[in-house]
Write a structure and sequence with these properties.
Elements: H1 13-22, H2 31-56, E1 58-64, E2 79-85, E3 105-106, E4 121-122, E5 131-138, E6 153-158, E7 174-186, E8 197-204, H3 205-216, E9 220-226
Antiparallel strand pairs: 1-2, 3-4, 5-8, 6-7, 6-9, 7-8
Length: 229
């Protein structure tokens, strides 16, 4: 008997069995092969569904909405939200953690669309090129009422007569630096009990020598321009 072509419309399981038997080829059904085939099909389907679900599951993360220079105090307008796959390997910051960024200073320059992480931001003010930190040991009457914290912006005055330090809030004295950033606030040694705080400020390096001279003569004072953040 001549075998029928597999392309024939009459080619089916029954004719295959008949053809094999007619040509002396023993034929035996193997149910375990059917079970194996079904299992493999189900496994492949499961893998495909898992990959699809993984690629379709996305989360909202924060990125820079624009180019942000180092030292910028972050505000909500500096943030944008994008969707990324949840299984990606790069570090990101969820939208729910925006509070970890807002009000902080960028420790480095950030580019538009760059993913944000907490390590990119400093709790202390950032020292930029052309800046210098100057330490000032001050009495209570040389400081704004309520004290200062890192990140505050102050104006530095020269007071020719140290007894006039309390009048700088009224505009008396000569302005040395119109805007300086408080870098740190520390306690003074016990031996310097006449002073109340040791304030480090960030100022342009061109103004540093003048400020230090007036500070050494104890003829300097600070007023608060704006509070941190």
């Amino acid at each position: 008997m001549q075998l029928k072509s597999p392309t024939s419309p009459l080619f089916n399981a029954d004719t295959v069995e008949d053809a094999l038997a007619t040509n002396g080829v023993p034929y035996r059904r193997r149910p375990w092969l059917v079970v194996l085939g079904v299992a493999m099909s189900l496994s492949c389907a499961a893998v495909v569904m898992t990959l699809f679900a993984s690629s379709s599951h996305r989360v909202s993360v924060l990125v820079a909405s624009r180019f942000i220079p180092a030292g910028t105090v972050m505000s909500p307008s500096d943030l944008a939200v994008v969707q990324v796959p949840s299984d990606q390997k790069i570090a990101t910051l969820p939208v729910s953690d925006a509070r970890l960024v807002i009000g902080k200073r960028a420790g480095t320059q950030l580019y538009e669309g760059q993913a944000l992480v907490p390590q990119q931001f400093a709790s202390q003010p950032v020292l930029l090129r052309g800046d210098q930190i100057v330490g000032l040991t001050l009495r209570a009457d040389q400081l704004p009422m309520g004290g200062l914290v890192p990140g505050d912006t102050v104006q530095i005055f020269a007071v020719p007569n140290p007894q006039q330090a309390t009048s700088i809030a009224n505009g008396e004295g000569s302005s040395l630096v119109s805007q300086a950033t408080v870098y740190s606030v520390g306690e003074v040694p016990i031996s310097s009990s006449q002073y109340s705080a040791y304030i480090s400020v960030i100022i342009p390096e061109n103004d540093a020598s003048v400020v230090e001279s007036w500070a050494a003569a104890d003829q300097i004072g600070l007023t608060l321009v704006s509070m941190k953040g």
